[in-house]
Amino acid sequence: MGTARSSAIFGPKKPPHTVIIARGDTIRHFTLRPWMLAVAGSLFCALAIAYLSATAYLVLRDDLIGASVARQARLQQAYEDRISALRAQVDRVTSRQLLDQQLMEGKVSELLDRQERLSRRNLKLEPLLHRVDFAGARLPEEAPLPRARPDLQAGNVPSLDRFDLRITGASQLRLTALGDAAPKADRTLMQAERADALFMELGRSLRRIEDRQMARIRSLTQNAYATAETIGEALRSAGLPVADDYGAAGTGGPLIAPEAPMKFDDQVDELDEALSTLDRLKATLEKAPVANPADGMSVSSGFGMRKDPILGRPALHSGIDFRGRSGHPVKAAAGGTVMRAGWAGGYGRLIEIDHGNGLSTRYAHLSALNVEKGAKVEAGTVIGRVGSSGRSTGPHLHYEVRKDGAAVNPLPFLKAGKRIGQVM
Fold this sequence. Notes:
By secondary structure, the protein is an alpha+beta fold. It has 4 helices and 18 strands. The chain folds into 2 domains: about 15-150 and about 155-230 and about 270-275, no CATH class; about 300-415, Distorted Sandwich (Glucose Permease (Domain IIA)). Strand 13 and strand 14 (about 360-370) form a beta hairpin. The longest helix is centred in the first third of the chain and has 98 residues, at about 35-130.
């Protein structure tokens, strides 16, 4: 072994450890360096830790496996619960959509039925409205005709989320198609509100049409009765027979159905009755000489006793005279058949018309005749021209009304015609 070397600064240096192995004549030695000892210690520690870890894993393996299985089971259960909740939510949404679809189908069917009922009402009213031709009557507005009824089977009703409801007036609606870019969430959110507003507004619109229709029917009925009453009173005041002796029995009253309010069919029946009464009175009126034969001409001499214009002595004047210019048109006072058309002594050129029921009229002193004997004329037809033919002192129309051949005063007839003209 050598002598240890020394250092003047650090002192004597320790010699490294040496391991000597002798076997027979063979001798080996190893010098143990500090780093070799550190590496050997590190390896030993690593092996010890690995052994201890393996031992702990083997000991705790069952617990770790059980915890992992339990955690996996919990995750699977939570996932299944989530799937069940989502399925239940989808079922609720689907059921709600089906209910909404059925509700919408019911409302659409109800609206279409009401609209078709209005159309059928219009068809029923149309024949009656053609009979309403008296003055001042205002015809009811026609209800809008529905389009072809859609097939309301499931899946064929258009979804409201494709439309945008815009109320543009008191009773005017407009459905505008939404673009594909419209937010679906907004459409879903506003669908119920738009549907309710749509059906409520359409229902109110149809109800207003029904109310206007009923109000117009009542108005027409009242006008028909009022006109019939006026015509009946005017004809009776002129001493003319009235069809069915309207108003003479002293009985009557409004037609009221057992159930209130009055149903549409009952009001239509009452309107039909009123129009039938009015038609009968107008049929009588057409043959009654109540029209003025000389419009715009003044009366120069009345009916009854007067001083004869030629002889100057009292004489019966069997008609009334209308002063006018020669050539002024003369019109028939009522419809009838021409009995005479030609020269008739002191009457000059004369036209006599038979109106039936014993009534006839005469038009004398004419300058021209526009009709011949046997001709059928209507009220207001121009039958001749004013003149001064026959026993006359100047151009005028001598007009007579005769009942059963006897001359009667034409003035009540003219007053009745004037009164009737205010309502016709």
